[in-house]
Amino acid sequence: MLSLVDEAPRQNSPRYAALRQLGIADELRCALMLGQDCWGSLIIYRSGQAGKFTPQDAAVVGSLGPLMAEMIRFTLLRQAIAQPADLPEAPGAVVVDREGTIESMSEAARPLLDDLNEGYPGPVALYSLAADLWNGQKAMAFSVAPGRSGRWIRLHASWLEPEGRRKIVVVVEPARPAELAGVLARAYGLTGREREVTMWIARGLSSKEMASELGITPMTVNDHIKAVFSKVGVQSRQQLVATLFFDHCLPRRQHGATPGPYGWFLDG
């Protein structure tokens, strides 16, 4: 809750000043978590007349968080994760300062940011990633977020000047199939171990080889594989790899699409 933040940091925050001008008295944020995975965030505002949020309000919203996360997860499974037939010639770049202001961006970044923009002053996915870098000790951070068009967009943030840490540059580009595979694996509800097994399946390892890599028995590996097949709804390793990886690539290649220099296709 914003009201729990100390008065001095709030008074020095340009964002808090903007909220006051809009008549906002308090803000409540909730990360929509399911296990160790965050599927989204919820931001609720209260006007001055409604007063501040209470601990009971926070508890109610917190109890609903896993349910909303589950809804988002199922929505991802139901929607067709479509990639566009053509992509920009190069990834876009955005420069963000410490106040969260976009200082500059390349022309290739504009359509991608427009696709991410939810109507807020700017894409929440972009600001969240930049804030993650500002508030931590990381040298870089990345995320994959869905755009309004249905395609997925990858954001990769790093320091523009590592010594001074005054600005962040965010590379924005359409997500690649391998990255989507990780998102899909989580959306199917695969556990961490099941995702490991899935990655080894994609590399063509046998159950015995996987057992050696993971330090478990081949029988345990086969149990994980059965669980993966059941959750994804496939009956073979080939179907699993096709579902998580090649459904996004093979149809375009069969229709004569030209592989581009950035890991995807330049035409339909």
Describe this structure in words.
The chain is an alpha+beta fold and 268 residues long. The chain has 3 domains: 77 residues, no CATH class; 84 residues, PAS domain (Beta-Lactamase); 77 residues, Winged helix-like DNA-binding domain superfamily/Winged helix DNA-binding domain (Arc Repressor Mutant, subunit A, Orthogonal Bundle). Helices cover 43% and strands 21% of the residues. The protein has 11 helices and 7 strands. The strands form 2 sheets. It has a 5-stranded antiparallel β-sheet with strand order 4-3-7-6-5, sandwiched between helices. A two-stranded antiparallel sheet has the order 1-2. The longest helix is centred in the first third of the chain and has 24 residues. It is globular, with a radius of gyration of 22 Å. It starts with 6 loop residues before the first helix and ends in a 14-residue tail after the last helix. About 6% of the residues have low confidence.
Features:
alpha+beta, two-stranded antiparallel ribbon, 11 helices, Arc Repressor Mutant, subunit A, Beta-Lactamase, 268 residues
